[in-house]
Amino acid sequence: MNNFFLNAPLTINISLSYRCNFTCHHCYSREISPTEELTFDDFKKISQILSDWKVPFLNIGGGEPLLVSWLFDFVKFSNQKGLHCSMNSNGYLLDKEKAKEIKKAGFTSVGISIDSPKEEVHDSFRNKKGSFKRALSALENLAEENVKTTVSMVISKLNKDDFEEIVPIVENYKVKQLYLHNYKCSGMGYKNMEKLDLTPQEWKEFYKKALEVRKNNPHITISFDDPIMHLLPEYNERPLVRGSTCGKLSLNIHSNGDITPCGFMSVKIGNILKDDIIKLWKESPVLNTLRNPVPQGKCTSCSIYENCLGGCKARAFIMAGDFNNPDPHCWKEGGDNR
Amino acid sequence: MTVKISDDVFERVEEENLRQAEEALSKGIYEVAENLGVLTLIKAGLMTQLNIMGYHIWNKIKEPKTISQLAEEISKDFDVPYETALEDVKIFLKDLIDSGFIIYE
Ligand code: SF4
After folding, report:
1. Is B49 in Cβ contact with A10 (below 8 Å)?
2. For residue range A24-39, what is the model confidence (pLDDT) as tens digits?
3. DSSP secondary-structure letter at B36?
4. Among all residues of chain B, which has the CA nearest to that of A176?
5. CA-based, 20 to 30 A from B36: which of A69, A126, A210, A285?
6. A132, A114 in Cβ contact below 8 A?
C-alpha cells in the first residue's frame, strides 16, 4: 500500500489564547499571532466540529494555556466529545491545585518546556527568574497526580552542548518523553535567529550527538521532528509520512479560529468557524502544495529526497518565501541557502 | 496461542477511503482498493495504515484467536486454499506483531 492519506488530521494544535506570563527569546508566536480570541462557546463549537470530523488528538498550546480561565471546562467538554487533550505549558502556574484540576479535567498528557539543564540559562532564556524551579515542581506536581508528562526543549546555541544533562534531571520526575525541537525561525525566533539558531554544520553535529544520547538512554523516549535527520546514516527511522508532517497529519488553529498548516507558518488556509473544513483539508491549494513538494536547488540531486522531501516547510517558507526551497538547516553540500 | 489487538492501540476508520475502496472492489479494480488506507492505527508514537483486506483481517482479531483459526476464516471468506490464507495471514501479522499493534496471548 503506498497511498497514505487521512480523511482528517490526527492532531489539531490549538491556541485558545496567545496571552502569556513569559517573554521568551525564541517565542514563535509573539509578534505574529492574532490577538483576537474566540469565546468559550466558540471553542466548544470547534470541539464539536473536530469530534464530528473524527479528529482524535487535540493539543493545546498558546500562549500559556493555564491563563485561560475556562481551560478545564473546555478540556472536560472536549473529552466528552471523544477528543484526547494534551497541552504545552511553561509550568510556572502549575501548582499542586492546578495539577489536581488537570487530572480531573482528563488531560492525557502535559508537556513542560525546559530549555536548558542549567537553571540560570533557562531562567534568562525564558526571561523569568524562578522559571526553571517552577517547571520542575510542575513536573513533580503532575507526577504526584499520575498525569503523564513530557518535556520539550527547543535546541539553540545556548543548549546544544549540554542538552543531554536534562535527561537524568527529568527522569527523576517520571517524564516519559523528551522532545528535542529544532529551532523555528518565526516570531521572536526569527528576530533572534542570528544569536540563537545553529548553523547547518552545528545541526549536523547536534543530531549526531542526540542520536548517541538516545541510544544510551533507552528508558526515556527521545523524539525529534526534523526530516533532514535522514541525512545521517545512523538515523534509520522510516516514518509512514515522509518529510514534514504539517498539513498531512496535523493542522493548527489560532485563537481567532484561523487555520494554518502549522503554528510556525502564517499562511492562512481558512477559518474553522467560517469555512468547510473537510473541503479545505481535501482541496486547499496550500495543503496540496505541502503534500506534493517539488525538489528545488540541491534537493534535486539529493539521495534522501524521498524521505526528507526538502525538510521543514515552515523554515523554507519563512526564509525563502517558497515551500519547495531546501530547508535552511540542511547541511548537505551543493548550495548555500541561508 | 492466540493473537489479539494490543490494548493501547488507537484506531480510526478513514470512512471516505473505505467507501472508495469498496466501490473499487465492486468494480474489480483491485489495484485501487489495495492502495487505499482505510484504517489508521496509532500506538505510542507509531502509526500505520491498513488497506481494505488488512481491515477485514483486523476486524476478525477483535476477538482473540489462533493463527490457524484466522487462516480458516479467511480461506472461507475469500474462497482461497487454507495454505494460501495461512501464508497471507502470517505476512499480514508479521509487521503488526513486530511493532506491537498485535500481541500474542
Ligand atoms: S538537500 Fe533537500 S532533500 Fe536533501 S536533506 Fe537537504 S533539504 Fe532534505
Report:
1. no
2. 777 776 666 778 899 9
3. B
4. B44
5. A285
6. yes
Residues in Cβ contact with A39 at an 8 Å cutoff, skipping those fewer than 6 apart: none
**pLDDT band (50, 70, 90) for residue A4:** low
- Alpha-helical regions (H) of chain A: 40-52, 71-80, 96-105, 119-125, 131-144, 166-171, 188-191, 193-196, 200-216, 277-283, 285-291, 305-308, 313-320
- List chain A residues with CB under 8 Å of B37: 1, 3-6
- Omega of the bond leading into A257 within 30 degrees of 0 (cis): no
Please check the confidence at residue A145 and state whether its pLDDT lies above 50: yes
B49 to chain A, closest Cα gap in Å: 7
pTM for the full predicted model: 0.90
Summarize pLDDT for A261-303 with one digit per residue, the tens: 998 888 999 999 999 999 999 999 999 999 999 999 999 999 9
> Is A3's pLDDT higher than 60?
no
Q: Whose CA is nearest to atom 5 of ligand 1?
A: A228
Residue ranges in chain B whose pLDDT is less than 50: none
Residue of B nearest to A4 (CA): B37
In angstroms, the Cα distances linking A69 to A13, A51, A83, A87, A256 are 19, 23, 20, 15, 17
Given the candidates 3.40.50, 1.10.287, 1.10.10, 1.10.1740, the CATH classification of the domain at B3-104 is 1.10.10
Q: Which amino acid is at B57?
A: I
High-pLDDT (> 90) share of chain B, %: 87
The string of DSSP codes covering A241-296 is: S-S--BTTTEEEE-TTSEEESSTT-----EETTTS-HHHHHHH-HHHHHHHS----
pLDDT of residue A167: 96
Strand ordering across the sheet containing B10-13: B10-13, B39-43, B46-50
b vs e for B11-29, b when ≥16 Cβ sit within 10 Å of the residue's Cβ?
ebebebbbebbeebeeeee
- Average pLDDT of chain A, as a whole number: 91
From A219, A147, A221, A135, select the one nearest A177 (Cα to Cα): A221
- What spacing in Å lies between the alpha carbon of A314 and ligand 1's midpoint? 14
Q: Residues A316, A328: contact at Cβ < 8 Å?
A: yes
